[in-house]
Model the fold of this input.
Amino acid sequence: MAVRQISIQLENKPGQLSRISELLGKEGINLGAISIADTADSSVIRIIADDPDKAMQILATAGYSHASFREVIAIETPDHPGGLSAVLRPLAKANINVLYLYPYLR
Done:
C-alpha cells in the first residue's frame, strides 16, 4: 500500500520534536509512524499522519516551509522470526533498494 510520508528538517535543539507533536496533536492529527535521522546540526523527521494534507497545512502555517511529501510503501510483515526477510527478499530480487524503514502503527 502506498502512503504519503511527510519529511521535516529540524534544528538539533531541545523541544523541536515536542513542538511538532503539540502542533499536530492540538489539531487532531494522529501519527501512525515516526522516524528520526540526525546529523550534527539538524534532524530529518519522517512521519505518517492520518490526514497528511491537513498535517502539511498545519506545518506550513507554523513556518515549517521545508516540509515535503514523499510516496512510500507500507508493507505488513509476518509476526514471526524471519518475517521481515519474507518481505525484503522479494524486494532485493526486484532490485529495489530499501533506504530506511520504521514501524507503522495502525
In short: Residues 16-26 form the longest helix (11 residues). The beta strands are 2-11, 31-38, 42-49, 68-73. The mean pLDDT is 89.
